[in-house]
Amino acid sequence: MHYLKLIVVFIVLPLLPAWAGWEQLQRVQAAQPLGQVGMVLSGVALGGGLLAALLGAAAIWLPCHASRAARRGQPLLLAAFDGARRRLPALQALHIAAVAVAGSCAGLFEARVLLRDGLEVEALIALAPAIVLPLAAWWYSLWRIAQARRAIAEAFQPLPVVSTVLGQSLSARQAPELWALAERLALALRVPPPTHLVVGFEGRCQMTFTPVQCMPGNTRHEGRTLYVPLPLLGLLDAAEAEAALAYALACNAQMETPYGQVFLPVYVGLGSALEAADAQVTRGVWQDVLFAPVAWLHEHLRGAWQGPVSREQAACEARATAAVARAVDGLALRAAVERLARVEETLERILAIELEFGNQPGADVLTEALLELEKNAPVPVNATAAVDRYFADGPALRASLSQAFYQHGEALEAELEADLGALRQVVASATQRREAGPVRKTLAWCMIFLLLFGALASWV
Q: Which of 141, 287, 399, 420 keeps 20 to 30 A from 248, CA to CA?
């Protein structure tokens, strides 16, 4: 279905004005009195439609070919992806221009035929909408595309990758045991130690070298940031927690390669670029129809690289697992993964409910989550005390994190209320214009239909 949409839009649709141009060229060669102008218009419609179809085929073929070339090795991954990413906007712009010229020339040819045939006024009025309305819809579409040209170009420009976490940054004085454990594991694994340590309640244990923004407060950290969820320290014993931290350090070390530092930020940032570009386009039926091929081509580009990315990711994880097995207890890592897999989904649901409804004065998120989790899965005895031993003042840290957790929930609730208020205004405005709205939508679809009808008018 994905390839079918691309083929229809980028290959089949340009062939319609090419077909019309070929039929018009046959009429010119059959000695119809259309002169040199008719010959030029029909030839340009034929050539422009064929050129647009070739450009569309190239736009579909390029990501697939580049992804196959990238399978030869990691050094070619970024070069192939970046080359395809930079060429696709140019191919799409040329494709739009060729289709625009071909469709316009085909429409102008038919308009010239009507004017040269010397028809009666009544017949001319009856036949004119079949040419004039599709041609007007065609030019209106081109005008809309020209308005969105910046958003279309920016859809293929990756945005900087910034990880956002709900947590608190801790110094070595605030978390002496955890910092010492991380540095000892980094030394055993022969990998760089973290430069920042962030703890929270949600997510998985991981270390990243991309910028990290801590909420609330929007504190930004550059460098290697190790994020540790407190429930992990309470649910796992000492050996399992050590293996989980070691795995996070080893995975980050495996990602500090051209693949992880150069290619992956571009690949991930491209997804954010499409969302940002889509937000710039004015919403409406016509705009959604015109912007859809950009999203399809964008999806095709990222999808073509899904295979190489998955293979590189699996290879990095396998190397990290082997490094952890050599440095610490490999069985402890397997036990930690199995235990966290059993409770991860339940814990995420509990924390989501706590974030939305659990704002109680003086409440401890970790204690509440562990008590709720105990109803569904076994929880180690003194899990809270096991967490506190890693920090200089565990209760104070849990209280501070709980307060930040609930403040974030209140901020999300306020943002939701603001969005609902804006939505109410939109609904009220739409209600006031309820008669005009359906009319505009109907006209938009009618213009799209007439556009296709006009492209087939010559053949019919």
A: 399
